[in-house]
Amino acid sequence: MKLNVTTIRKFLHKSQKPIGFVSGSWKTTQRFIDAEKRNFELLFFAFSIGLSVGLVGSVFRLTLDYINKLSTELYAYNSNGKLINYFILIILSTISVLISYALVKNLAPEASGSGVQEVEGALDQARPLRWKRVLPVKFVSSLFSLGSGLLLGREGPTIQIGANIGKMFTDTFRRPDDEVNPLVSAGAAAGLATAFNAPLSGIVFVIEELHGHFHYKFFSLAGIMIASSTADFVVRALIGVDPVVHMTIFNHPPLQSIWMFFVFGLFLSLVGYLFNAYLIKTLNRTRKLSKRNAYIYAGTVGIVVAIVGIFNFNLIGGGYQTIRFVLDHSFTFVFLLILFLSRLILTILGYSTGVSGGIFAPLLAMGVVFGMLFGNMMQSVFPAQILSPGIFAVAGMAGIFASTVRAPLTGLVLAIEMTANFELILPLLVTSITASIFTTMFGNKPIYTTLLKRTLENAAQQHK
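Request: output the structure for the sequence above.
Response:
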C-alpha cells in the first residue's frame, strides 16, 4: 500500500470517530460512577442519622420513663388525703409546665407543640430548621411537659428531633442541597420509629403524610427505610423488643361482624372532625393572649391536670397508662364516656398551651377508650359476633388517626405494630378507610396541614 498524503488523511478521518466515542463513553461512565458514589454516600448518611436518632431517642425515652416512674410513686405516696401533699403535687406539675413553656417561648418558638408541621414546612423550604436551638430545647422542654402529666405524646418531639438531626448532618458534612430533603425525611422517619418501636410506620408516615413534601426517588426511599430500621434496632437493643402496647392478640372476628367496623369508622370520622375543629379554635384563642396571660393559662392547665392525676394517675399523661388501665379493667358505659370526653378536652387544652409535645399518643389512647365504649355496646347487642370489645380498641387506634391526621395507612400500620395484632388487618382497613373518607366529606382538613398553614400565617404577620 502506497502511503501518501491522501491516504494518511483518510486514516485520520476514520480514526476520529472511535477516539471521540471512547472519550464520550468515558465521560458518561464517570458521571454514572459519580452519581452512584453520591447515592451510596446518601445511604451511608441515612444509616448514620438513623443510628444517631436511635441513640438520642432511646436516651429521651429512658429519661422520660424514669421521670414517669418517679411521678407515679409521688402520686401514689402523696395521695393519702393530706392537703399539703396534694398542694406539692399541684405545684410540681405547674412548675414543670411553666418551665417547658418558657424554654419554648424564649429560646425556640418552633419547638412548640408537635413539631411535625415544622418538619413539613422545612421540607418545602418554607420554614427553617435551626437545629442548634431546636435540638436542646425540644429535648429538655419535652421532658418537663410530658413529665408534668400533660396529655401529650413523645412521638412529636422525636420526629422533630430526628428531622433536625438530619439537618445537622447535612450542614456539618456540607451535603448538596438536593440531599437535604431525603436526609431530613430520613430523620423524621427514624424519629417515629424510635417513639413507638414501629419502623414500618416511620417509613409509611413519610410516604403518606409527608408525600407532598418528601422528594420521592429510589435512593431517597431507601434512605428513609435504612434510617427507620437502624433507629428501631438501636431502640430495641437499648430498651427492649416488646410492643409498646401490651394487650391480647385477637383472632379475626367473624365476617358477618365486619359491618360494625364500618359503623365504627363513621363515628370516628365525627370524633376526628370535632377534635380538629376545637383544637384549632382553642389555638386561635390562646394565640391572642398576652405574654402574662399565656403563662397563667399554661399554669392553670397544669393545675387541672394535677388535680385529675390526684383523682386517678392513670387518667393523665400521654396515654399508655390509660390504655393499660382501660384494657385491664371492666368499666361501665358512663365511666368510659366520661373518660373519653375528659381526655379529649384535656388533650386540646394541653396542646394549646404551646409547650412541646405531640398528639399521636393521646389520639391513640382516645381511640382505645372509644373503641372499648363502642365494643361494649356491640357485644351487649350481638354477643355471638363480638367475643371481645378489645378488637374495637385496636381498630379505634387506627380509625381515630385516620380521621384526624388523614393518614389511614399510617394509622393502620401503627396500630398493628404497636399491638402486634396482625390478624385484624381487614377490620382495621374498613375502620380506617371509612373514617378517612367520611371525615373528608365533612370538610375536615388534615390536622398538620392546618397547623402548618397557621404557622406560616403567624410568621408572615410577625414580619409585617
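Residues 22 and 28 are 10 Å apart (CA to CA).
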